[in-house]
């Protein structure tokens, strides 16, 4: 049986109140009715949270004192403490945020010609165990509540407010496996997409998974217009199992079947993220094999020159080899691009800043 938001929240320690940012608008309307308040107040609360972006319930001045006290009694207005902020020469900003329990997470602001994109984190650590990723060092500590994911976007938006700019797109590709925290991730999507929330268009939101197959089917059945990406990183089962242990549980052929189900169900294409690792998956024969794997799939391949992670042994693929790899795919009719590198002069690899600064979390 699927858990409701309230049942998930009761599993938390009694001393920790849920975040008001975790409430979808309809949920907040129902909660207000249950507590003897008018449901239209939910819209006012959303306005304070996402338009005025206040940091305390007492600042919601068009609400009665009793309602403000009621909200404070049952919820926290999640605020993230900025432990470290790095800024790259290309404008990329990386934040290390501290949570209420002392754990830290990473959020990244990337500046593009088409606007400002925020990459959010869904878990403290990760249990997937990809052998090239700093996020998985030390394993999974806990899932983030939907409100803690929302708060990352709000926090970055407040930083952009100083320049009269706004968050125009969101990618869920930070620390953690989004589909391993599926219900909270789904609530996050609905909250930031809502017209009365942050109002970020569905087609300006991208979620990525390493390949938790049952959740891909569930996500497809939601029929959202969200962009969908798969962390592929290999053209065959052998290499993928070496890079991504999840492939031992969810085999590549079954993953491709789930991807096709998603495409058939939604009519939308899938993006495959393909990190290039020197001498591992970046040879011409790998490009040919990859082209064969996706030849009948409505997709786009995003080639990623990997960032070096000190705790890992992989090396970057030479630039000339990246172009040769891309050319093979293009010649085979595959829709492919090379991801533009950003934040290369700071701790750009996902989880790298957290691993560097908070070693007690990543032991």
TrEMBL record:
Which biological process, per GO, is one annotated for this protein?
rRNA base methylation
Q: What is this protein called?
A: Probable dual-specificity RNA methyltransferase RlmN
Tell me its cofactors.
[4Fe-4S] cluster
Residues binding [4Fe-4S] cluster:
126, 130, 133
HAMAP family recorded: RNA_methyltr_RlmN
Give the family, as the similarity comment puts it.
Answer: Belongs to the radical SAM superfamily. RlmN family.
So what EC number does this one have?
2.1.1.192
Record key words, sorted: 4Fe-4S, Cytoplasm, Disulfide bond, Iron, Iron-sulfur, Metal-binding, Methyltransferase, rRNA processing, S-adenosyl-L-methionine, Transferase, tRNA processing
Classify the source by domain of life: Bacteria
Role of this protein: Specifically methylates position 2 of adenine 2503 in 23S rRNA and position 2 of adenine 37 in tRNAs.
Something else the entry says is:
Reaction proceeds by a ping-pong mechanism involving intermediate methylation of a conserved cysteine residue.
Domain Radical SAM core residues, every copy: 112-345
Record: active site? 106, 350
The reaction(s) annotated as catalysed by this protein in its Swiss-Prot or TrEMBL entry are:
adenosine(37) in tRNA + 2 reduced [2Fe-2S]-[ferredoxin] + 2 S-adenosyl-L-methionine = 2-methyladenosine(37) in tRNA + 5'-deoxyadenosine + L-methionine + 2 oxidized [2Fe-2S]-[ferredoxin] + S-adenosyl-L-homocysteine; adenosine(2503) in 23S rRNA + 2 reduced [2Fe-2S]-[ferredoxin] + 2 S-adenosyl-L-methionine = 2-methyladenosine(2503) in 23S rRNA + 5'-deoxyadenosine + L-methionine + 2 oxidized [2Fe-2S]-[ferredoxin] + S-adenosyl-L-homocysteine
Q: Which gene encodes it?
A: rlmN
Instruction: Cite the PANTHER family for this sequence.
Output: 23S RRNA METHYLTRANSFERASE, RADICAL SAM CORE DOMAIN-CONTAINING PROTEIN
